[in-house]
């Protein structure tokens, strides 16, 4: 059983940056691909980014491509989401998730964190 804990959310002005972290425990981190998803108020959960087990392969939603970067540190059992040039429409609760293979489909992920709030003011 893998436990995931996100941190790093907060309030930032448009154009600013935040780095989210997701610390994993309770399992072998390198067995899992990792993904980030988000849910904005009144909207469906959506895929943001994913990376494979060693962090070489990365995948992004078109809405964040070029602004967000996913990375992982397999020594620290942590995955990161560096978010630059933030926009008000990036406001959401951000979740990390673990799965055997990287995928954009949320229902394929077996383990989820509790989420961290990101609010971008205009």
Describe the secondary-structure layout.
Elements: E1 3-7, E2 10-13, E3 18-25, E4 33-39, E5 46-51, E6 58-60, E7 68-73, E8 78-83, E9 92-99, E10 111-112, E11 116-121
Parallel strand pairs: 2-11
Antiparallel strand pairs: 1-3, 3-8, 4-5, 4-9, 5-6, 7-8, 9-10, 9-11
Which radius of gyration do the C-alpha atoms yield?
Answer: 13 Å
Give the helices and strands as they follow along the chain: EEEEEEEEEEE
Q: Compute the average pLDDT.
A: 97
Strand content: over 45%
Please explain how this structure is put together.
By secondary structure, the protein is mainly beta. The protein has no helices and 11 strands. The chain has strands spanning 3-7, 10-13, 18-25, 33-39, 46-51, 58-60, 68-73, 78-83, 92-99, 111-112, 116-121. The strands form 2 sheets. Strands 2, 4, 5, 6, 9, 10 and 11 form a 7-stranded mixed sheet that branches. Strand 7 and strand 8 form a beta hairpin. It is globular.
Features:
50% strand; four-stranded antiparallel sheet; 122 residues; mainly beta; seven-stranded mixed sheet
How do you describe this structure in short?
With 122 residues, the protein is mainly beta.
